[in-house]
Amino acid sequence: MDEGVFRVLDALGHGRPMARSALVRASGEAHSVVAALEKDKAKWFAATGSELRLNERGLAALARELHGRRSVTPADESLSALIARLRTRPGPKRALDQVHAEPASTLRRAQHLLEAGDAQRGLLFLGDDDGIAVALAGLLEEAGIERRLDVLDVDDALLGWARDTVGDEARLRTHAHDLRDPLPKGLQARFGCVVTDPPYAPEGFALFLDRAREALKPAGRLWLSFGGSRRAPDRVLAKQRLVAEGGWLLEAAEPNATRYDGAESIGATSTLWRLRKTPETRALHRSAAGELYTRRAPHDEKDPSP
Predict the structure, then answer these.
(1) What's the order of all strands across the beta sheet hosting 18-19?
(2) In tens digits, what is the pLDDT along the chain, a chain of 306 residues?
C-alpha cells in the first residue's frame, strides 16, 4: 500500500467521522492526496457533508495493511537461530565490494522493511551479501505472513546460501544475473520496493540505480545504503549528485543505520536512504563496460583482495 494511502487510512482507523481538514492534519498528507484517495477508493469511505470515515471495506483494508506492517521481535530462541543463520554467510568477496554487515544491523534493516510495509509491495534485492532477505524471510515466517522475496546477485555462492537457508521458493526466489546485462523482462516494472547496497565506484553505483529504476513500479521505493569518510566528502557528494541527476526523491535518511565487520575506510558504517521513484526518474546512461567495483570487474579471474 502506498505510504500516503496508509497514513490517511491510519488516521481514520478509529472508525469515527473526521472533518477533511482535520484528516489532513492528522495524516500529514495534502488535501489533494485525501481528495484523490476518496475518489480512487470510494468503496472504502462513507462521507457525510465535510466529514469522512472508513466503512467496513476501508477498515478491512487498513487491518490487512497493519497486519503486514506490525513490528516483529522474535522470541529469544528464534532470534538466536536467525543470528546463527546470518553468521553462516559465505565469506565476503572484496572483488565485488562485499563487506558483511553485522548480523544485528542486518536484522534491523529487515525490521525496517517490514514495519514500513515494503515487504508487502513486492520486494527485490539487487545484491544481498548482508543477508537481509534471509533475515526478512525469517521475520515473515515468525509473523505468519506469506510473502515471496526476490534476490538478484552475480555471486552464485551467496544465492545458494540464501536458497538453502530459507529452503522454500515460495518465500525466497533467487536470480543469478550480472547487472551489466539488461534486467530480465520478467523483473522489469514488477516491484514496489528495491533494496541495494551498491558498489561505491561511480560506474557501479549509477548502474545499480538504473537497474532499480527498471525494476520498480511507478512511485516505488528504493532503500539505498552508502557511507563515506568525513575526510572525503567529495566521494559522498558524487553519489548524491547521481541520485539527484537520476530524478529520485529523498524521503528519509538514517545515518549509521548499518554497521559492518570491516569497511574501516568509511568508518564501518553506512547511511540508509529511502528514495522514491518519480515521473522524473530517468536512466543515468553510464557505461557498464568499465570497472563497476573499487577492486576489479566481477569476471576477472584473479582476485587481488587480501
Answers:
(1) 18-19, 51-54, 45-48
(2) 778 888 889 999 887 888 999 999 998 988 898 889 988 889 999 988 888 999 999 898 888 888 777 766 665 556 677 778 888 888 777 777 767 778 888 888 898 898 888 888 899 999 998 899 999 998 888 888 889 999 999 999 999 999 999 988 889 999 999 998 889 999 999 999 999 998 878 888 999 999 999 999 999 999 998 876 666 678 888 889 999 999 999 999 888 877 776 554 555 678 899 999 999 999 997 655 556 665 544 444 333 332
Question: Could you give the CA distance from residue 3 to residue 9 in angstroms, rounded to a whole number?
Answer: 10
Judge whether 53 and 17 are in contact, CB under 8 Å.
yes
Tell me the CATH number of domain 3-69, given options 3.90.226.10, 1.10.3720.10, 3.40.50.150, 1.10.10.10: 1.10.10.10
> Could you state, in order of their start, the residue ranges of all structural domains in the chain?
3-69, 76-276
Sign of CA pseudo-dihedral 233, 234, 239, 243: positive
> What element of type H or E holds 239?
helix 233-245
Helix, coil or strand: residue 53: strand
User: Which fold does the domain 76-276 belong to in CATH?
Assistant: Rossmann fold (3.40.50)
In the sheet where 149-153 sits, what is the strand order? 172-176, 149-153, 123-126, 191-196, 216-226, 269-276, 249-259
